[in-house]
């Protein structure tokens, strides 16, 4: 059966409060803000950002087959011939479309925030819900003032479930986003010292994350981390927002979704949990206790929106780490191979410690070493030097063989390391690249991690470009 269009042009113009110019196509298959990924039949929204004005690409969007370009009234006055929806402000128009899209669907909506684990939890939950019904979720994080309304506006009217990631850098940023999303279930994964430079204290971080509760639908539920030291603060904020039902997850004996037992392995974890009175045992298909803990929040949210618990638990075995968030690949060397663990998407003290724990349990070759390549963790405020230096403790505990560091803050870790662990230091990731490349040997396991601003992702791409992946059919016997 043919799926109905995401929007008709008239409906989108009406939702945005705009007027149609020219002769656009009658149907809109999707909404895009990037001509590089735009497909024919989509609506292009010309967002004016800090670095680029999307109006400069409106012509290219139409040339690629966009049904219509959403542009400002001011720009439309001198626009070349084409199919447009003229609005006062394209970003505000996108927000209006998102609000209308949310109102027209009967989908059960889950909103996810937290200091760490938002994206992996969002992706895992979306995969679980997709086994139960038509599920809408963003392909990437899309968790800010542009990504959230864009994800809402792209939600089909017939969706049965929606999963939204809601992020922030400053206090007050989550409030307008959660009021757009209006989640039935609000999940907070954890509260940690992330963005503390912007907010001043970890208490302020907890309060900023708790803003997600103000948008929760009447009768909605908060899912909270019971082991976190700010659990009571979060629960109080949820109740103050009118949320009567709070479901907790963790190892705490009072957790509603409680981890009873976990067996960690290099590729996955086996988890036994008690989920709101029901015992389940399941495999979680990515390594690391931190990820398995977040799977408890996934099961809680899935059950709360009506999913079959056994089927949800079974689906967790299909989880795989993705690029930037633990993706594992075997790369070919001239005389063997090494394992690359890509954790380059972002970093904070909690996530780096978790990644080091995974590296410590990763199997290496007979002559191989466990190697960590670290870039600066940003936005840590006055505690930055101490938090970087203290990473020496999990490195020592995990018996990590060698450490590469880049960035001024990681210099404090470098200075704390014993000489036998020092593999190389450079002021920038680009300068560190040749040191890492020259330092690899067959059987090594290499984990790369750092904040996005520390530019560790390009270092990973250089490693991938330099050393090709070992095909699956060649894995047997590889070292």
UniProtKB/TrEMBL annotation:
One GO molecular function term? UDP-N-acetylmuramoyl-tripeptide-D-alanyl-D-alanine ligase activity
List the transmembrane segments: none
A GO term from the CC aspect: cytoplasm
* EC number from the UniProt entry: 6.3.2.10
Q: Where does ATP bind?
A: 114-120
Q: Where in the cell is it found?
A: Cytoplasm
This protein's pathway reads: Cell wall biogenesis; peptidoglycan biosynthesis
* Catalysis: reaction(s): D-alanyl-D-alanine + UDP-N-acetyl-alpha-D-muramoyl-L-alanyl-gamma-D-glutamyl-meso-2,6-diaminopimelate + ATP = UDP-N-acetyl-alpha-D-muramoyl-L-alanyl-gamma-D-glutamyl-meso-2,6-diaminopimeloyl-D-alanyl-D-alanine + ADP + phosphate + H(+)
**Domain Mur ligase C-terminal span(s) in chain numbering:** 339-452
> Which controlled-vocabulary keywords does the entry list?
ATP-binding, Cell cycle, Cell division, Cell shape, Cell wall biogenesis/degradation, Cytoplasm, Ligase, Nucleotide-binding, Peptidoglycan synthesis
Any single Pfam family the record assigns to this protein: Mur_ligase_M
Query: Which InterPro entries does the entry mention?
Result: Mur-like_cat_sf (IPR036565), Mur_ligase_C (IPR004101), Mur_ligase_C_dom_sf (IPR036615), Mur_ligase_cen (IPR013221), Mur_ligase_N (IPR000713), MurCDEF_CellWall_CoF430Synth (IPR051046), MurE/MurF_N (IPR035911), UDP-N-AcMur_synth (IPR005863)
For this chain, the family text in UniProt reads: Belongs to the MurCDEF family. MurF subfamily.
Q: What does this protein do?
A: Involved in cell wall formation. Catalyzes the final step in the synthesis of UDP-N-acetylmuramoyl-pentapeptide, the precursor of murein.
Give the protein's recorded name: UDP-N-acetylmuramoyl-tripeptide--D-alanyl-D-alanine ligase
- What is the species listed in this Swiss-Prot or TrEMBL entry? Phreatobacter oligotrophus
């Amino acid at each position: 059966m043919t799926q109905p269009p995401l929007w008709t042009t008239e409906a989108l113009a009406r939702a945005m409060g705009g007027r149609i110019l020219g002769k656009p196509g009658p149907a809109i298959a999707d909404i895009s803000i990037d001509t590089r990924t735009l497909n024919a039949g989509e609506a292009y929204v010309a967002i004016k950002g800090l670095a680029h004005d999307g109006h400069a690409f409106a012509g290219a969007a139409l040339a690629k087959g966009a049904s219509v370009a959403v542009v400002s009234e001011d720009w439309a006055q001198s626009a070349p011939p084409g199919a447009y929806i003229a609005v006062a402000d394209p970003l505000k128009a996108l927000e209006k479309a998102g609000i209308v899209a949310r109102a027209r669907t009967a989908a059960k909506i889950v909103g996810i925030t937290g200091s760490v684990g938002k994206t992996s939890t969002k992706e895992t939950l979306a995969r679980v819900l997709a086994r139960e019904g038509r599920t809408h979720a963003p392909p990437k994080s899309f968790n800010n003032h542009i990504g959230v309304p864009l994800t809402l506006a792209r939600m089909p009217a017939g969706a049965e479930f929606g999963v939204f990631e809601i992020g922030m850098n400053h206090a007050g940023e989550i409030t307008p986003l959660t009021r757009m999303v209006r989640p039935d279930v609000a999940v907070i994964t954890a509260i940690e010292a992330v963005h503390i430079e912007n907010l001043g204290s970890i208490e302020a971080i907890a309060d900023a994350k708790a803003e997600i509760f103000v948008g929760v639908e009447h009768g909605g539920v908060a899912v909270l981390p019971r082991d976190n030291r700010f659990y009571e603060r979060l629960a109080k904020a949820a109740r103050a927002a009118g949320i009567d039902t709070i479901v907790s997850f963790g190892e705490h004996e009072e957790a509603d979704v409680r981890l009873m037992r976990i067996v960690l392995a290099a590729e996955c974890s086996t988890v036994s949990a008690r989920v709101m009175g029901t015992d389940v045992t399941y495999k979680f298909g990515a390594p690391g206790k931190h990820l398995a803990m977040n799977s408890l929040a996934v099961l809680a949210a899935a059950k709360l929106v009506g999913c079959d618990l056994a089927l949800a638990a079974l689906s967790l075995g299909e989880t795989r780490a993705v690029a930037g968030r633990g993706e594992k690949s075997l790369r070919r060397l001239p005389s063997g191979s090494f394992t690359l663990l890509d954790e380059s998407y972002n970093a904070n003290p909690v996530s780096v410690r978790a990644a080091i724990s995974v590296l410590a349990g990763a199997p290496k070759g007979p002559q191989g070493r466990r190697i960590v390549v670290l870039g600066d963790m940003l936005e840590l405020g006055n505690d930055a030097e101490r938090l970087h230096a203290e990473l020496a403790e999990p490195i020592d505990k995990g018996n990590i063989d060698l450490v590469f560091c880049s960035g001024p803050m990681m210099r404090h870790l470098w200075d704390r390391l014993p000489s036998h662990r020092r593999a190389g230091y450079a002021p920038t990731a680009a300068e560190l690249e040749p040191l890492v490349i020259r330092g690899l040997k067959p059987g090594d396991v290499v984990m790369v991690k750092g904040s996005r601003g520390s530019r560790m992702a390009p270092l990973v791409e250089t490693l991938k470009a330099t050393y090709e992946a070992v095909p699956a059919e060649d894995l047997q016997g590889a070292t």
